[in-house]
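Task card 7
Instruction: Convert sequence to structure tokens.
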Amino acid sequence: MRPERIVVGEVRGGEALDMLQAMNTGHDGSLSTGHANSTEDMLSRLETMVLTGSEGLPLEAIRQQISSALDIIIHLSRLRDHSRKTLAITEVIGMKDGKIQLNPLYEFVEDKSSTLEKVSGSLKRTGNVMENTYKLHLSGCKLKI
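Output:
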């Protein structure tokens, strides 16, 4: 069947393990959505969702599955003025001391014209260099550093 992409709609429970396993079969460009308060919280939610679907699976194994499956987490949110904006783009860079390591690349920064009624701002580079560029190079993308 050789799929080019694997797209899983919103994950809310035990199907998160199926999503991670599918993403870890070598199909780059996979995509899914989930709900959390931040990129860090999304990792915790994923861990919890996987545990609900497969009790007895060690947390270390779950974290390894997550860090292998995910390259980038994009956090969108509805703000106080009810607008939706991208608040963060974060790279998943692997495991260290049993924890998944994140590398924030972009963060939303409000500008001076932002008010209580209208949020104004933009994504700004954090200054962190993207570490895992191998897949981008393979796809022909040229990075400006």
